[in-house]
Amino acid sequence: MDDRVTWPERLKDVDRSDDGLRAWVAERIHRLEADGRRSADTHLVAVDLPASWDIHLYLKDESTHASGSLKHRLARSLFLFALVNGQLRPGMPVIEASSGSTAVSEAHVARMLDIPFIAVIPRGTSTRKIALIEAAGGHCHVVESAESMSREAQRLADERGGLFLDQFTHAERATDWRGNNSIAVSALAQLELEPHPVPRWIVVGAGTGGTSATFGRLLRYRSLPTSLCVADVENSAFFEGWVQQDPTLTTDHGSRIEGIGRARRSSRASCPESWTG
What we know:
two-stranded antiparallel ribbon; globular
């Protein structure tokens, strides 16, 4: 053998696996899956209208979830997204910027997972919402205005070594729109035996944008002719941003309706332009 031959250095292995952390994450995913198995689907309610109108109208009643909140599906999806992406560890608090239904559902899910939860809420949030968050085991941190909620939530997360869940950025990507907890899959399956199993229109409100993104993706994926209408509220940045095709557009203040009508759109959030046509 030629002694002058230079052999490459041995490969260096870096093992950062943590069996304890993996077991902790697996247990919390198991709790989420078990909760989903125990939970019945929400009702699709047929609304009686005059026959002469020739309109079939259905309402998806999301208020019957275990947390009593319309955002129960979103809360489960956001926690699952954080767990599988390695963003959560034992003892880390979760912080959210929300004065509405999302915080109520997230407090419910956080308690189920034994994770501390803090909701950053604007002054003036209804005492009923605060009571629901606290009854589910969450804590409320008050700021002066809705416009400063996200900044304060991120500051708290940095200060306490926690995770800012950030529903407005992650809602559209955390939800599995083809299955697993999808409101779109659920609603279309419930329509299958109705006189018109493929609806002409689906109408949703604009909160985080997650629901409209979920429906929009599924409708395109299944090549359905259904149109999607997103109803926005006054002073919301979503509608004007969509009209002007400007994702950076902001308004002077949010809407008067608690929990919806954002004064700005997250630069990373799904753009409403995606759901035209």
